[in-house]
Design goal:
With about 220 residues, the chain is an alpha/beta fold. The chain has one domain: Domain of unknown function DUF4159 (Rossmann fold), CATH 3.40.50. It is about 35% helix and about 15% strand. The chain is built from six helices and seven strands; from the N terminus they run H-E-H-E-E-H-E-H-E-E-E-H-H. It has a seven-stranded mixed sheet. Helix 3 links the parallel strand 3 (about 80-85) and strand 4. Helix 2 (about 45-60) crosses helix 6 (about 200-220).
Length: about 220
Amino acid sequence: MKKYLSLYCCFIVLVHALSFAQSTNSALKIGRLKYNGGGDWYNDPSAEVNLLNFVQKQTLITTESKYEFVEISSEKLFTYPIIFMTGHGTIKFSELDAERLRLYLTNGGFLFADDDYGMDKSFRQEIKKVFPESELVELPYSHGLFHCHFDFPNGVPKTHKHDEKTPQSFGIFYEGRLVVLYTYESNPSDGWADVEVHGDSPLTRDEALKFGTNVVVWALTH
């Protein structure tokens, strides 16, 4: 069984490497991660579309501004340099999900997870399956992600009040590279959605989109 799993993993790494090589000559897409557990992984489908449009206007990155979801079990997972997940409810990773997600992340992939108020407990529990040896560590305001394109001297902006706690950003590092970014009590992805969805002010939406741009720039350059 271990022999077959090893061969399978080697095959996936090859697919992953080829896909990322091809992606360097194509427009950037972000995959919305579809996960099990009952949480609304699918909410605010306009979020990535608006972010990718904004990124193309504000940087030299060419984007394909569309909403695409991807399951962990799909080979398409390895075609996205960045995957995004959010929701209000429970997340559940199977053993195979955790193995595949780890493979994706340790071979160049990047995960941005944004708590849409309610997924914090299960996200922390499930990401531990992916990186049992690592902890989510809070990023200091001096971290380069907050300054790589737009400047955020106080870290992630507070898009929505939630419990009115201080917004925080956490990360998991693998061999010195930030592979998982998790934002808590901030919810910038809500600010990416169409204006009529949450009714955020132009300033709030602009801050959220600028922060999302920093995430994209950092993920692609580090």
